[in-house]
Write a structure and sequence with these properties.
Structural class of chain A: alpha/beta
Strand order of the largest sheet of chain A: 6-7-8-3-9-10-12-11
Largest sheet of chain A: 8 strands, mixed
Helix content of chain A: 25-40%
Chains: A alpha/beta (405), B mainly alpha (334), C mainly alpha (298)
Oligomer: heterotrimer
Chain lengths: 405, 334, 298
């Protein structure tokens, strides 16, 4: 039973300095109880997609400019303000990255939990408080009765995130969206919180969208993964399939830039060259082209749609048997996946049409000019002309002057 | 929190001492002969001798300072040169008038400033915001006396809506008990005098309170904008709370904290501004007394009042800081 | 890592930033209100600097026969005052006096306060505590009261007024310098600079001080606005320049209140002059603050 169907979602930010094309036609589906991972680097649009689902885009810049978000048969993009408010917290809940700043510092935990409950159900204060205690113990907070009267700053980071989870699950939503829930936490606490998340969602049959940039996190948590880049979904597959046969050059690059404990000694990490794209320009062609070692000429002009790897297979969009799809004109072969780079005569990436940014060449030129990576000399090239004054009084970031002895 | 309060109290003590030194210098360490310098053209041998004796100018400096300190502790600020009355006593009778004015100005500044700031934040970058910004800019750029005379001219002399000056209509008499005209009017059972006193309070309060108004507006606006962008406001919306609730419980509850911290500073500005305001409106308070003292070269009065005001300012700031520690859970339950 | 032969010319990227100062200037010039402020200030400077060229009249001595002419009278664009002095001349020379006194007092305040703050911030520890308590003492005497106190102590006169106003704005600069030094002392780049052997003084001047430059610029501009108001306030209270005939806006305003019936227009011009100058510096100060730190939330 499809719980959520996002169809060709487009989100743009209209700012004074230009328009940012944050999400450019994202489509995916989610079943009840399914756990989906949304992976990508900062700025790829993964958080924005989910804010758009809940219509929580930052005003006044954020605009949902296209597509549909069909939840239980209703297009959330079109419903009234009071309807979406009704759904928020009750049917779809969201938890955010930084638990310290996500909780109101002047209200007690108890007050914040009770107000959530009472916003959607007509219950008395004592009933709401009782439920809050129940929830706190569900997420593993000791002495929940007493802690209801505490303020957020009196909790540790991991505990705060548990409280956020408790608040989110208070009304037993059908879908929980977790936006980088463990990024701000210590590694050991991360594992605990993730376990908690997995157990609770399985227990209550809650669907989960887990947003992260950390592949390790999704590996153990999700049944399916969408990989996003520059506002597009570039690959989608069942979790196991994705790790076994990553098919988009970006995914290949991601997997190869993680050191693995079972890798043979001496194996090099293959970084993804270049920088993330400038989202101020409307995309033309494949957004990954400037950084892609597999690119062909067509990649510069035509943005490949998501296509099943096995062209004969019937497309299944959800569940463990979902079809492995990738948006690429020239996906890497199996050997190239292992190596992390193109092999043989596919070694020469197509040059860009004039005027386009070629991250690959620039990065390579820098490396081959003989300067050591990341040393003072290299960074000195990047600083603006007047090097003696910092860019902003509060940043205090002065370049290190190599001539300063 | 107690640690914070204690630390705060302790840090006030050296400042108090420093203040006493500065003000001692102001009165006792005049360039040239203090006594003649103080008296200027009023210097007669008799007055000069009296001043010298009063200030103990023949004794060594440190002894003068110690005497000064002990005097201060006993509330002995000396006597006015012009009319020989004890300064603290005079201060006591006139200060309530200044307090009424200060409260009026505070009410104006915060009563109008906070809503204006919120309004501007709500319409940020829009026309409303622009308008409020202009108002607050002009507000901090108009000196009190310019604004005061303008108000007097337009509203009192031209349009005759409000009284031009003084704290009370000259024909009304209210027996001074507390020296707070409003209180005394109520105590004496004279509601018409009460209303009249209130009417007299309006223009001076506006004149004195405009600069604080501008500042409060700016700070409220900035604070609301800051808070509105915070993650927990997003969380509140994500929980499905109504906008009104998000606004009152989540935004405003946090936004008004920085505004509280400004109260203390504004009181200082108000005390300073009272001198000018009371002069313009011939208001019966300490400020006008200082002005007359300046004109009459009664420098002991001037410096003594400055001392007392500085002390009051320090105390008010202390109270505000402690109150803030109480109001902010992050400090209260550190 | 095998090297790849470059497949084409390295295309020059468009330089996103062309220098921090030029960026700031660009932002400033696009800021409408700041431009208005600059215009007002330019007007103020124009009057102040070119005073003798702009009017043939003596601002101090006037012809009694011509007194209290209304604005628009022949030869007197803004009229004359009770002593027969040309009002326009008085405004213009008043601007000159304002310029000298206000700029002087802000510079003095910066020198005094900035030095104290810099020492406090650089030294830290006991020195810091003592120095900042001293600054707190100055701050304990609010606003114009401190200026009144200083002028009452030292007597009337332009240098005394400058010192008085300097005393009121010195604490701000002390705090800025101290804060900036304190915050940046522990920054990585400072530790790095010192780790490669840069001497302390050089670190101070080349790295730490320039960081506070922007805050000082903003604070200085705003301090000029308050200085204008405070100097006028002193004049209003009768603590202006020692020669009461001097053309100073605050004193002019007080004087004019005495003959309000005969010459109501005379109260208008000095008031407007003060307000316009103050608005100008406030606008510029705000504009500078926005353009020099673009990350500031509006």
């Amino acid at each position: 039973m499809t719980l959520l169907a996002v169809d060709d979602l487009v989100v743009r930010f209209r700012t004074r300095d230009g328009t940012i094309h944050a999400v450019n036609g994202v489509s995916f589906e989610l079943e009840e109880g399914e756990r989906l991972g949304l992976v990508g680097e900062s700025g790829c649009g993964k958080s924005v997609t989910n804010l758009a689902i809940m219509r929580l885009l930052p005003k006044p810049a954020g605009h949902l400019e296209g597509g549909r978000v069909v939840f239980e048969g209703v297009d959330l993009a079109k419903v009234s303000e009071s309807d979406i408010r009704d759904i928020r917290g009750k049917d779809i809940a969201m938890i955010f990255q930084d638990p310290m700043t996500s909780l109101n510092p002047v209200l007690t935990i108890g007050e914040q939990m009770v107000e959530t409950i009472q916003a959607h159900r007509k219950v008395s204060n004592s009933a709401a408080r009782a439920r809050a205690v129940e929830l706190l113990s569900m997420v593993g907070i000791p002495k929940p009765e007493a802690r209801l009267g505490d303020f957020p700053h009196q909790f540790s980071g991991g505990m705060r995130q548990r409280v956020m989870i408790a608040i989110a699950l208070a009304l037993e939503p059908k879908l929980l969206i977790a936006d980088e829930p463990t990024t701000a936490l210590d590694v050991t606490i991360q594992a605990q919180v993730l376990d908690l998340l997995r157990n609770l969602t399985t227990e209550h049959g809650t669907a989960l969208i887990l947003i992260t940039h950390d592949l390790g996190v999704v590996a153990g948590m999700t049944q399916r993964i969408n990989v996003m880049y520059a506002g597009f979904i570039v690959e989608t597959a069942a979790t196991a399939d994705l790790f076994e046969s990553p098919s988009h050059p970006y995914t290949v690059g991601l997997l190869h830039s993680i050191p693995r404990i079972d890798a043979p000694p001496g194996e090099e990490l293959v970084p993804i060259e270049g920088r993330p794209p400038d989202m101020r320009h409307a995309p033309a062609g494949c957004p990954f082209a400037p950084r892609c070692a597999w690119r062909l000429d067509v990649c510069w002009s035509e943005n490949p749609p998501l296509r099943a790897i096995d062209p004969t297979a019937r497309v299944v969009s959800t569940g463990a048997a979902s079809t492995h799809q990738v948006a690429c004109h020239n996906p890497p072969t199996r050997e190239e996946r292992e190596a992390g780079r193109p092999l043989g005569d596919r070694y020469h990436p197509a040059p860009p049409p004039s005027g386009a940014l070629d991250e690959l060449s620039m990065a390579r030129v820098g490396a081959s000019a003989g300067e050591p990576d990341g040393a003072i000399g290299e960074t000195a090239d990047v600083w603006p002309e007047s090097s003696s004054v910092s860019a902003s009084p509060s940043a205090g970031g002065l370049p290190i002057d190599p001539t300063d002895r | 929190m107690t640690k914070y309060i204690v630390r705060r109290l302790l840090s006030t003590i050296p400042v108090l001492f420093g203040l006493s030194v500065v003000l001692f210098v102001f009165v006792h360490l005049l360039p040239g002969d203090p006594a003649t310098a103080l008296l200027g053209q009023h210097a007669t041998p008799e007055l000069t001798a009296r001043i010298r004796a009063q200030l103990g100018l023949d004794k060594p400096l440190y002894e003068q300072y110690l005497t000064y300190l002990s005097n201060m502790a006993h509330g002995n600020f000396g006597v006015s040169i012009l009319d020989n009355r004890p300064i603290l006593e005079e201060f006591g009778t006139r200060f309530p008038g200044t307090i009424e004015l200060t409260i009026g100005a505070l009410a104006f500044a915060f009563g109008l400033g906070i809503p204006l700031g919120r309004f501007a934040a709500r319409h940020v970058q829009g026309l409303g915001d622009g308008l409020v910004t202009v108002i607050s800019l002009v507000g901090i750029s108009i000196p009190i006396f310019v604004l005061g005379y303008t108000l007097q001219f337009l509203l009192a002399v031209d349009l005759k809506i409000l009284p031009a000056s003084s704290s009370l209509d000259a024909r009304l008499v209210v027996p001074p008990v507390t020296h707070f005209i409003l209180v005394d009017a109520l105590l004496a059972g004279q509601p018409d005098a009460f209303v009249d006193a209130l009417r007299h309070l309006v223009l001076p309060s506006i004149a004195l309170g405009t600069i604080p108004l501008a500042i409060v507006t700016r700070i409220t606006r900035a604070s609301v904008l800051d808070v509105a962008n915070e993650d927990y406001v997003r969380t509140a919306r994500a929980k499905g709370l109504r906008e009104g609730r998000v606004d009152s419980r989540h935004i405003m509850r946090n936004a008004w904290l920085p505004v509280v911290t400004v109260i203390g500073l504004q009181v200082g500005g108000l005390l300073a501004g009272a001198v000018i305001t009371e002069t313009v409106f011939t208001w019966d308070g300490v400020g006008r007394w200082v002005f007359l003292a300046i004109q009459g070269h009664d420098y002991i009065v001037v410096q003594s009042v400055i001392t007392i005001f500085a002390f009051i300012f320090l105390m008010v700031n202390l109270i505000v800081d402690v109150a803030y520690a109480f109001l902010n859970p992050r400090i209260r339950y550190a | 890592m095998a090297s790849i032969a470059s497949t084409g010319p390295v295309l020059a990227t468009e330089r996103a930033s062309r220098g921090i100062w030029r960026d700031a200037l660009r932002r400033l010039l696009r800021n409408g209100p700041a431009l208005v402020g600059l215009f007002f200030i330019a007007l103020f400077l124009f009057l102040a600097l070119l005073a003798p060229l702009l009017t043939p009249y003596d601002p101090v001595v006037g012809t009694l026969a011509d007194r209290l002419q209304p604005p628009g009278s022949p030869g007197h664009l803004l009229g004359t005052d009770l002593q027969g002095r040309d009002e326009l001349a008085r405004i213009v020379y008043g601007a000159r006096l304002s310029l000298v006194v206000c700029v002087g007092s802000v510079l003095m305040g910066l020198a005094m306060g900035g030095t104290i703050g810099a020492i406090a911030g650089a030294a830290g520890g006991r020195t810091d505590a003592v120095l900042m308590r001293t600054v707190d003492v100055l701050l304990a005497i609010p606003g114009i009261l401190l200026a009144i106190g200083v002028v009452t102590w030292l007597g009337r006169g332009l240098p005394q007024i400058m010192l008085a106003v300097a005393a009121t704005n010195a604490p701000i600069f002390a705090r800025i310098l101290r804060g900036s030094l304190l915050a940046n002392r522990e920054q990585d780049y400072v530790i790095a600079a010192r780790s490669i052997g840069a001497p302390r003084l050089r670190v101070l001047f080349r790295h730490l001080l320039p960081n506070s430059l922007t805050s000082v610029m903003v604070a200085g501009t705003l301090a000029l606005a308050t200085a204008i108001i405070d100097v006028a306030g002193l004049g209003f209270l009768g603590l202006g320049p020692s020669d009461p005939r001097t053309a100073e806006w605050g004193t002019m305003l007080t004087d004019s209140t005495q003959y309000l019936r005969q010459g109501p227009f005379l109260i208008f011009f000095p008031g407007v002059a003060i307000v316009i100058s103050a608005i100008g510096f406030n606008l510029l100060g705000d504009g500078l603050r926005e353009s020099l730190d673009p990350r500031l939330k509006r």
